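Convert to structure. Protein one:
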Amino acid sequence: MNHYFKQTLDIADSVANLHYVSHPLGKGEELDALIERIGSARVVMLGEASHGNHEYYKWRNYITQRLILEKGFNFIAVEGDWPDCYRFNRYIKHYEESGNSAFDVLHSFNRWPTWMWANWEITALGEWLYDYNGSVSSENQIGFYGLDVYSLWESMEAIITYLKEKDPAMVAMAEEAYQCFEPYRTEEGHGYARATSLVPELCRTEVVNLLQGIRLHFPNYDTDHESAFSTEQNALITVHAENYYNAMIKGGPHSWNIRDLHMEETLERLLQFHGEQSKAIIWAHNTHIGDARATDMTSEGMVNIGELARMKFGEHQVALLGFGAYQGQVMAGSRWGAPMRSVAVPPAQSGSWEQLLKIEGSGNKWLWMDDLRNTQFLEVPVGHRAIGVVYNPEYEQYGNYVPSILPLRYDAFIYLDQVTALHPLHIKPDGRQMPETYPFGV
């Protein structure tokens, strides 16, 4: 994406508009009106401007709990790996032999960037969900699932484990697919991507046959319907992951689109699994949940789950809530796979969405974006900061701002003046040094 932006707004007029529509955010009850408005949607998507800020997780925890308690939401689906998140799902639902604590289950997450889900903030949410699920019937328990496509090998291992117990006749087919990919495992898919430049459908037949075989046998699997559903989902991941790595080597928007189309298909499958009246809460980066059609992503041929969900379910059934901040600290790596570190996030650049919200002057706040539809924000793209798992602030001006028509990108937005770094479980030798403010109330 081209993240350059130009300062073309009338600053004074923009700040005046923001002041008029801003609602203060200090205590949780100041979100009552927001909860009431988004709670009527079938799908609520909670964004974040980075994967490494405590406050984004804290407020999403709070909003998630209220949507469950007050608005009848049924499950959470996050920008994470299915196999890891499914283990966490089994823990919070009190399955047998599913772990002794949220900490133990999350501490086993070992795919970089581990801090995204193996952190104290999700630990707090997990224990809340565990307690909640212990107080309701099994059919009313809240689920927790992964939307992403990266877990190729872990998904195949989970399939083989399941089939060895439930459908031994299918094991050979699963192992054939696994063995096809095995030579490329050490490079997390990059080696396979390079190999497909020479043999484009290197392992495609194996994973497609595996998915078809599992779907054919699906009606015969046992009464643990969620476990059978998980196995089918893992098979779907292997097909989409193969497509993803095949597309990655070619460049362009295709690999991104495969990933977000998979997220949307997973959301639809989860809603179908949970029933016609089910309601979903999504946690993912702003770049995934904020409607791509309101950014420069669309000119580059990119789609995202926010756009796709609005198109599938209708705008009134999907609530997109973005997050952003002016400055602070963030947990990130200097390059892909690098050790995590806390990095200073400089003040937002001049003319950006975050700087305008800072100039407005009322501190932390939330906005209902419809209130800006009669302003210049509906006409002029504004730079909106986006920080990924790789972040080097010295290069921020070149790649960390997405030109956005904000009233069309989100339904609501939460702005924070100052943010702090997330609390990873793996940052200490044993990961057990609990933060002083845990479990992080608002």
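Protein two, convert as well:
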Amino acid sequence: MSVFAVWIGKLTAFILHLAKRNATSLPGKVALQVDPRLLQTLSRQLHQCVVVTGTNGKTTTAALLSSMLGQTTALIHNAEGANLPQGLTTALLRRTSWLGRLKDTTALFEIDEATLPLVSRYLPIQFLVVTNVFRDQLDRYGELDTTIEKLVTGIAATQATVLLNADDPLAQIVGLRSGRPVQYFGLAANMATRQVRDQVRDGAFCLQCGSLLNYEGFVYGQLGSYHCPKCGFHTPTADYSGEVFRGQLKVYVANQPVQNLPLPVLGLFNAYNTLAAVACARLMSISMPTIAQGLSLYQAPMGRMQVFNSQPRTVLNLIKNPTGCDSVLQAIASEPGNKVLCIAINDLAADGRDVSWLWDADFELTVEQGQFIHCVTTGLRAEDMALRLKYGDFPEKNLSCHVPLEEGLDVALSTAHIYGDLPVYVLSTYTALYPLAQLLARRVSVYVQATENRPSVS
């Protein structure tokens, strides 16, 4: 291992901190340019590694699991969601001495689906969680077949036990094709309902035989209770089953007492995230009291329905694909009262250059609910977003377009103030998320990093 690469990486992080810049990826990127094998060599010092991957919910699930494991174990964790090789290397460098020795030997990594096959063979992964599989960033992942292939390749290179979403037929296929031992988590059958809205749903066909899957009910996206009438492919029995009841998560495990756990984030999609984290913690022999304590102390990551305590009150959340966006819009619409919406769309590499997914997201919900008094579009593709809303019949007189992020945010906040300090919901793609969080933090007297019962998707 090149100690020089470690020094360069740590000095880069130090300089970025002095400049008050985000240091989640660049230190690792610089260090890897000096020593391309640095991630591999640092990882050899790990005794235990847990990985969370999948399309939506990675950051939230990893944060929930970190809150549980952190009660008893010092963790190396890419908590900010920097889930590419440079982000993983940066996380390791933070806990590495100047001589290249890791200070902690347990790692919890959120890893991007396309990155998993590039790094999984270097990591001593014991447990690997797949949250779900959806179409995401077509220019990076291609269609679903490509995403599934990348996940299968990455998982097959490990010795991990794989924890899969039983209610996602695509996730089940990943497990079947990977050849690794699997366990399943899923919501109880009564949590799935008949289709209410006409939304784009991935994975409609059985990947075993090609027939159209039959659903008894949906939770969201293609997640639900499914079976194939031709080959018999169906929802497997979940080893860890969950049910949301009166703001708590009831967890059912065979031959064990039912556990009532706090549910720190709302939304059925977050019930999946919480259940995945609970299941993984139990596989790691973490006690239920420790899990419950971790859930009660959970703090939401940046941009996952992050609340800024201001006038007007502002909530920031990531959107990046149709299914995730639909879940966020539904969660916001479930909040009572009128509100102002600000949507920031960029098309840089981390966002995905192709923004055609905007046309598959259910933005018609913003019109049908009648709660969205005004919408501001901003970011590099603000005009594309405004056009999408126009074709979704959002009233043009209540729609404004401002490409600069600060200008767009200012208009949204001032508009909300005019209407009596209505809450502002800011939806953002990756590269606009951190700048918006900084802008909002400078505009409020009290910054609430984590608020109970706020929904998040990723």
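The chain has two domains: 45-296, 304-447. DSSP finds 16 helices and 18 strands in the chain.
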